[in-house]
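Work package 3, deliverable 3.1, input record:
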Amino acid sequence: MWATSVLRARRWPELDLPLLLAALGLAALGLLMVFSATSTPGAAHQGFWVRQLVWLGVGLAAGTLAASLHYRAYDALAWVLYGISVVLLLAVLVAGSSAFGARRWLELGPLRFQPSELAKIATVMVLARRFDNRWLDLSQARHWAPAAAIVLVPTALVLRQPDLGTALCFPAILVAMYFWAGMPPQSLLLGLSPAANVALYFATGSPWWFLLVLVPLLVWARPRAATVTLVLALNLAVSVSLPHLWNSLHDYQKRRITTFLNPEQDPHGAGYQIIQSKIAIGSGGLKGKGFLKGTQKGLDFLPMRHTDFIFAVVGEELGLLGSLTAVLLYAVLVLRGFGIAAAAHNAFAGLLAVGVTTALFYHTIVNLLMTIGWAPVTGLPLPLLSYGGTALVANCIQVGLLQNVAFRRQER
Amino acid sequence: MSRLTPEKPSRDQRLAVLVTLASLGFALVATGLLRLQLVENERYRRLAEENHVRREVRRAPRGVIRDRHGAVLADNQPSFNVVFRPFPAESSARLTTDRRWLEQVARLCGADTLAVQRAVRAAAATGQSATLRRNAPMDVVAAVEELRADLPGVEVVVEPLRRYPHGRLAAHLLGYAGEIGDEELARLADRGYRPGDLIGRSGVERAYEDVLRGDDGHEYVVVNAMGRRVAGASVVPPTDPVPGGDLVLTVDLRLQQALEDVMGDVERGAAVALDPHDGAILALVSRPSFDPNEFARGLSNERWRELARGGGDPLLNRAVQGVYPPGSTFKVATMLAALRARAARPGTRLQPCPGGYEFGGRYFRCWERRGHGSLDLIGALAHSCDVYFYQLGLRLGLPRLEATARALGLGERTGVDLPHEKKGLVPGAAWYDQRWGAGRWRKGLLLNLAIGQGELLVTPLQLALLAAEVANGGHAVRPHLVDPDPGGAPLARPVQPGLELSDADWGAVRTAMEKVVSEGTGGAARLAGLPVAGKTGTAQNPRGKDHALFLCYAPAARPQVALALVVENGGHGGSAAAPRAGRALHAYFVPDSAALAVAPPAWPADTTDVGD
């Protein structure tokens, strides 16, 4: 009954054209950049762009499929997909293949599959399904707590791989969807304050900075006395226990944690990558060195140049004009995504669009900031641009889901 | 969508918030790009032209190891290493085929051309620098500096070198740290090890690797086309190396030295001294020994083979990894078992010893063929009468003997903080059933067990522990080199609960052990003014001369040191082990008169037979 498929529609559905063009533009740019990054004269890396092209074909098919099924199908299947992705995440921990000290992939015959990509989409669907509720009141614990638990499971499993960068994508989705589903911003900020507290502690080394943030926040939000007490107690507990916890650790345990938080110190020399990435981008200048003319050639100089650090190639060869164009395309993608959410008449569809867009935004911004050296190296690919099958197909599906919501926006 | 809340923003407001936040994020990225590509473009363009940023490791020294009084047992000294740095990548690949360069480098480093080529090739492939010569003498350093222009890629760097100022002293206890191997590197990659790092391989260096290991710093330096550093062109501030944590061991250098001295002429053997109150290891010696400095400086392959496979196995820590039949030292355990099970009282006299004992159609001899006559339990231990202990074994039975031996920590790891500790063996009924089939073994073996022969196996550390627990009244302490909680309660052993006995029974065992030294088989350990309590042992060795054993504690009244000593193929415990223990204790307790006449008074009973 929800098979009101595009195939049966009489006229071409009203796709969101800016979104489609931005996504296709980025995918095409990705192909060119993968080609450039892996084509050193005489080197045998020519296979990458062909494989990326094949994956893009698969992605287009998957995206079309994701767009044509009615989103009510995702509403119905949300828990099933969520269950499957949790099982797969567990399987990764047990039998996954590892790279650089982390288990992230499942081997399926000749294919490698990264279940965290599926988990992101499934989590968005489950949250959208839960929040699509006339009586939802996110100021009450019995409404927001189950959603937090739903997010905690994949977060913890991905954290175990360990993959901090991807794991934090789940809470980011949760916060955006809480907000969209109507959690009062004051509550949201108060709820986030312990996390900000931890971040401030690691940034400044002092547990008392949070007061500077918390006190104005409480004055502004004016919550009930019980909430004030709870928030203060939580923050105080964090402030008091964190330094003790930290100091009670052995030096080598601290070292492991700082390496986890800041992989620049890892044995593969991520700090070296950042510098090479900055040199590549910075030396590109206004107009760049021209396609295929980057001098930072060779995988030896910048490992992961065709995957996580693909944007460095954009910056070097296409210059500021090229890199800003790419950023602009991402901005179009994300802002249209939120726009589509706002235009949807159906609550589930709107929530789905917000969640999917947030995941795309999180990946984009964390990767870009890493590439220009303003964020730690976390090993996140750049959506649609980086080489890699699972991520590309997942990104295509995400764009497909956004289109799905876009051309059914009038439905209730 | 949901209920009306005054604070809840409208859909347009929510959209505005999300759009603003996302736009801010993209604006941040755009700002970063503007700064990199316009403002700093000139600088990065220059760097890219050279494209020669090199990561240089600033090695952190390992922690210093000291004895309980602060004397240094292991520290670091600066050493000049000749290294090859594979930068820039293009030219270093060329160098591997440049014969003139290879030969010159090989001559300087005293290595052969092929080895240099291999190292340089590996370095060029991985981008890591290769150490060509560790601890180079000054003339080599000077020559390398002089030939800089001709030798691109080759440099002298100063790195900490592990130093063991006392050489062979306490070598097994300290262990050694060596350069990490490829296999370890792959296994420990996520712990931050890099090629060229030192890693603890044995002893304390291995057991406390996580503490001792420092945290290397690094620096990104800009280099020119020759691979030389360009001054003042740093890209990011360097991180400083963090030295490893220091360790204070429970070891007492003076007692260690004394034990090393008395074991000096021993070919193979071991000695351990414990503080009986808490199990702290005061000294630990194993023979043959090695010089850990050799490992720090880097071993040639031949030298390594010689040490690892040559005779005597010098890398084996016999104090915790060597297992020996305890011989008559085990009679202390048998006596404790008898008192515990009330199978005999201190004054109990059994059948007199005529020089042997008939059981199950076999004649079990006493080492004293002339016989000991009638003895009580105390006298039997003092004179180590086998016949008395045969009878005691039969009265006890196997289960009770085994239980007491295990309560004393025999047959189980002591939990000492040294790697690869051996368990030893205390056979019980289950063990014999498995070995010979259920019920297919004879009671006669109980007689052998009671005097410490048969299948029993113990480590020298377990023997020292046995002495310590008699001295401290049955507290199951855990031997250790580092006290994690100084001043706290003594560490407990992992398995056994210890031994509970009345004060009178402990007194009887101590009296008997004092008599071993004052009038029995251990007379060689007797010292003027220092009452020692101990027990000799001579363990039958099917492959050669008997092993000599001795365990003791001193001073007898207020024990401060518990000591066990094993001399492989040394012959009799009373003549080969006890006098060494006596000399070591004397040197420790009476430091100013080390030259005291050590000639012991003529000890009673001849010890010409097995099982003294």
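Residues 263-269 of chain A have pLDDT under 50 and may be disordered.
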